[in-house]
Design goal:
globular; Peptidase_M76_ATP23; mainly alpha; binds zinc ion; single chain; metalloprotease; protease; 9 helices; four-stranded mixed β-sheet; hydrolase; EC 3.4.24.-
Length: 259
């Protein structure tokens, strides 16, 4: 499989979707990402006895229902998710919820993923539990799906991977998500801080998927940074904190030729 381990499934960690470099230790070159998404291997996730005792057996199906409800909520009401879905449709890659978005039990270090082999976004139902988190995961992973649709990215090519991670961090986590989760920041520092955020987030995403160290990941990110950071398709703008940008981006979709 060729999923981007959150991603490549690239790995998104619980919380604000930061991928954990620690998980890369468990991944082997040939099967990066597999361990993070047990259900991708056609296996049912088998919780330990301790987990069964704590959570009860009914928890998993309840989680799936809640996860699917959150996905549905985002598709109905999140301008960002609606924009990404419109962009995908206009690019000839229309999203069918039941085919392309899957709620699954994942390793607890990730909150979502994109499996390019099956062209599916994975939402980790045991980690991504709120609609807000679901929106973040969907927006991020749909950017990977868009890049794959548009350019047939090779997620095993580390520069392609770095590029799509830069774009996802740029257009979602370091803008819109930080707007929700971070406190106040001086507008004068935002441009610099934003670039640093994107570089760090992208490097950690790459490290979660590939077995390379931070210096190497940062070097790859730096090589493709300018080109990928300035590629704002399909959102068209970096979404600023506490602003109406998310709604403006959705309204502007006509200008980009999306429905
Ligand atoms: Zn990613």
């Amino acid at each position: 499989m060729n999923a981007d381990a959150e991603e490549a499934v690239g790995a998104h960690r619980a919380g604000v979707g930061v991928e954990s470099p620690a998980t890369s230790q468990h991944l082997q070159e040939e099967k990066w990402g597999y361990d993070l998404y047990p259900e991708r291997r056609g296996e049912k996730y088998k919780p330990s006895l301790a987990k069964i005792a704590l959570l009860g057996e009914g928890r998993e199906s309840a989680d799936k229902m809640k996860c699917e409800k959150n996905v549905w909520g985002c598709v109905q009401s999140s301008p960002l998710v609606k924009l990404m879905m419109a962009a995908l449709k206009s690019s000839g890659c229309e999203v069918d919820l039941t085919r392309h978005i899957s709620c699954e039990v994942c390793d607890v270090t990730v909150n979502g993923g994109y499996d390019s082999e099956l062209n599916q976004v994975i939402v980790c139902q045991n980690v991504t539990r709120t609609e807000g988190m679901t929106q973040g995961v969907l927006a991020h992973e749909l950017i990977h799906m868009f890049d794959y649709c548009r350019n047939k990215l090779d997620f095993k090519n580390v520069e392609h991977l770095a590029c799509t991670e830069i774009r996802a961090a740029n257009l979602t986590h370091c803008s819109f998500l930080s707007a929700m989760f971070q406190g106040d920041a001086s507008p004068f520092k935002i441009a610099k801080a934003h670039q640093d955020c994107v570089k760090t987030k992208a490097a950690f995403s790459v490290m979660a998927i590939r077995r390379i160290d931070e210096a190497e990941a940062r070097a790859v990110v730096d090589r493709v940074f300018d080109k990928c950071y300035n590629d704002l398709e399909p959102i068209g703008r970096r979404i600023r904190r506490n602003s109406l940008d998310m709604y403006k981006a959705y309204q502007d979709r006509y200008a980009f030729g999306y429905e």
